[in-house]
Design goal:
The structure holds 2 protein chains of 2 kinds. Chain A has 11 helices and 10 strands. By secondary structure, chain A is α/β, with parallel strands linked by helices. The chains are: A alpha/beta, B mainly alpha. At the A-B interface, helix 2, helix 3, helix 4 and helix 5 of A face helix 6 and helix 7 of B.
Chain lengths: 257, 296
């Protein structure tokens, strides 16, 4: 069964149809990429799935249940984590603390127990710290655990953000341009990380402009243009799809390919 | 100035300074999670004092204070839930007007309930004339109670924000609300909690200080102005800054008595507030870049 199913999803901003009746399904344990020119509605699509924007019409189904209309924190608690195109770190907190906040959803000790540091919450606090350190280690930034997150290099901040998203123990991870602003080596590294995350059993949906990354790691690709889905296929087929070449390279070049 | 007098002024300055610092921290806690200044902050201090004085008729002192603090926390929660929670993207000005309105409401209600008598809790140890000699000066044990309570609150708060998951979540909300929501944090509950927390610390300070400073239905306004001055002076949202600025203002006020008449004490605080707002609106300890990034 598909983990995530988007059906006839639409979003209107006034007269602008940002997302227009888009449907696709995401199989559990796969990596799917959403590509398209600037303004195609990719980030809007993410915002609709994560509940950051209200849906105009259509459905988002997660494990068969409709989740559109849920509040973003409720969507997060269902196991859908996301990262942002422009990194959103918690300023004034260390890399480790940033990741620990992500463990919030997983913490069992109640509000009062945590406030008064009851024994149960103290051992849980240790657990949270340990687990968060493991995640930083997994992403290769454990050395910077005690550094203030906003003072880290851009690529490292992205890794912290990824670790924070993983701390929610999501079943679905939404990555909004994970390679934006990264150099070629960092991009290759993030590609390896995403594959590793998929191999841990986490389904990944990503928006990305870096075509070599997308072609390398995706199992399937959805192409959006002006809010509409114009293609959905495996990377090798997408590369030869005349429709896709047309929107990326323009009308005339398409004939020559 | 003799050494005794110097110590006497210093002790008075630190006492008032630590109260200002607590009020300022109350401002900061709410400012950090919501971006608004809660002008009803001073009323929490008044309620803490007044409620514990009333409850003292039925309960022993520690219980009366504890219950008064708990009741004030409930009032803080009620204010947030009734007046603030359901607002969608309220403007800063609207929020300020709401909190000023609430402060007037609470003040007038207090006048109705308790009248305009000046009241005070009894001294926790001894009475008005009990004193402890410190380097030739004589200091009331209540002064030590106030300083110790405020100091302890500051330490507990910093531990709370540093080492508990709720504290961390509140800081996360303050730093980046969008990201906090997407980490599964219900930010609305965090806002309610910030009101409960600042009502609690304000009320406790109000109860402990009342034997020395006395309390009345309208002390909240003055304290709110002093606390606001201190919060701005220390850099809005910066709690260590608030402690330093609170002590600074308290000590300046105390020593000013030896130079200008007592009646000018409040004028000094307000003069400092004006100068800071004109010259360094991000405060003595705040950085201008972060101040520029915050929404006003």
């Amino acid at each position: 069964m598909a983990l995530l199913r988007v059906e006839q999803l639409s979003k209107k901003f006034g007269g602008l149809q940002a997302v227009d009746s888009v449907s696709f399904a995401l199989q559990e344990g796969s990596i799917k990429a959403v590509i398209g020119p600037n303004g195609a509605g990719k980030t809007t699509l993410f915002n609709l799935i994560s509940g950051t924007l209200p849906v105009s019409s259509g459905e988002v189904r997660f494990r068969g249940h409709a989740i559109q209309g849920l509040r973003p924190y409720q969507v997060a608690r269902l196991g859908i984590a996301r990262t942002f195109q422009n990194i959103k770190m918690f300023a004034g907190m260390t890399a480790l603390e940033n990741v620990m906040v992500g463990r919030h959803v997983q913490s069992k000790a109640g509000f009062l127990a945590s406030m008064f540091r009851l024994p149960g919450s103290r051992s849980e606090e240790r657990q949270i710290r340990l687990k968060s350190l493991e995640l930083l280690d997994l992403l290769g930034i454990a050395d910077h655990a005690e550094t203030e997150a906003t003072s880290l290099a851009f690529g490292q901040q992205r890794a912290v953000e990824l670790a924070r998203a993983l701390a929610l123990e999501p079943t679905l991870l939404l990555l909004d341009e994970p390679a934006a602003g990264l150099n070629i080596y960092e991009t290759a590294e993030i590609g390896r990380l995403i594959t590793k995350i998929r191999d841990m059993g986490i389904t990944v949906l990503l928006v990305e402009h870096d075509m070599s990354l997308v072609m390398d790691i995706s199992d399937e690709i959805v192409v959006l243009s002006f809010g509409q889905k114009i293609a959905e296929d495996v990377p090798t087929k997408i590369q030869r799809n005349p429709e896709v070449i047309k929107i990326y390279l323009g009308e005339e070049t398409a004939g020559q390919v | 100035m003799t050494l005794e007098l110097f110590i006497q002024y210093l002790a008075a300055g630190i006492t008032y300074g630590s109260i200002y610092a607590i009020v300022a921290i109350g401002f900061n806690i709410i400012y950090n999670t919501t971006g608004i200044i809660n002008f009803a902050q001073g009323e929490f201090v008044m309620l803490g004092g007044m409620l514990s004085i009333t409850l003292l008729d039925f309960l022993p002192l520690p219980l009366a204070i504890a219950l008064a603090v708990a009741l004030t926390m409930c009032i803080g929660a009620a204010i947030e839930i009734v007046f603030i929670r359901w607002l969608k993207n309220p403007g800063v000005l609207r929020m300020i007007i709401i909190t000023i309105g609430l402060s007037i409401l609470i003040r007038e209600a207090a006048l109705h309930i308790w009248g305009d008598n000046v009241r005070a809790l009894p001294y926790f140890i001894g009475n008005e004339i009990t004193s402890i000699p410190v380097l030739g000066a004589r200091i009331s044990p209540q002064v030590l109670w106030v300083i110790a309570t405020c100091g302890l609150m500051v330490i507990c708060l910093s531990l709370f924000f540093k080492a508990t998951s709720v504290g961390r979540e509140m800081r996360a909300c303050a730093a980046n609300r969008t990201a906090a929501i997407l980490c599964g944090i219900d930010t609305k509950n965090m806002v309610t909690f910030s009101f409960i927390l600042s009502a609690g610390i304000g009320a406790l300070a109000g109860a402990v200080m009342s034997p020395i400073t006395y309390t009345q239905y309208d002390i909240g306004t003055g304290l709110a102005i002093k606390g606001f001055t201190v919060a701005i002076l220390g850099g809005l949202g910066n709690s260590p800054g608030a402690v330093a600025a609170g002590l600074l203002l308290g000590i300046i006020e105390a020593f000013s008595v030896s130079i200008v008449p007592l009646a000018f004490q409040d004028a000094i605080a307000i003069a400092i507030l004006l100068v800071i707002l004109f010259v360094r609106p991000h405060g003595l300890f705040g950085s201008s870049t972060t101040a520029g990034l915050k929404e006003y």
